[in-house]
Design a protein that fits this description.
Blueprint lengths: L8 H18 L4 H8 E9 L2 E4 H14 L2 E12 L2 E11 L4 E12 L5 E11 L6 H15 L4
Parallel strand pairs: 1-6
Antiparallel strand pairs: 1-2, 3-4, 4-5, 5-6
Helix pairs in contact: 1-2
Amino acid sequence: MNTLDSTDPKQFIADFFTSFTDELLRSDDDPALIFDRYHTPDIVQVADGHRMDRDKLIAHTRPVRKNRPTSRIEVHEALADGDGIAARYTLSVQNRKRELAIEVYFFGQFTPEGRMRQAHMLTRAVPADADTDADLAEQTPRLVEEQEPSA
């Protein structure tokens, strides 16, 4: 596992999520053991206002593992300061039923050996075929119009 102080922040966050997901989906090891290799026991993650501790996060891995989706992460920007990292990335996921893309604003704290201690995330769905920032900027007005209630 890479350490935050020895890796470019964009590469660190991409490697962290890619290797965690790959190991979770391609291994028969207990999900809790895999989870603990990447997270501290006192991990707290708040995603869109929903707080999850270690037990809730491990429970969240079980349906992901069962469905075995494919995913790809594109880190658009990332900054590190000490043990903290802020990043904006797009997570593209495809499972048997659908393809989706999620834009993520991530603020996290990591241990010196690269395990996640804390994370705060804001997410929003974006068109699954929007591969670049330019595509997202072009799609945003249409997404807003689709979400606004009609008068």
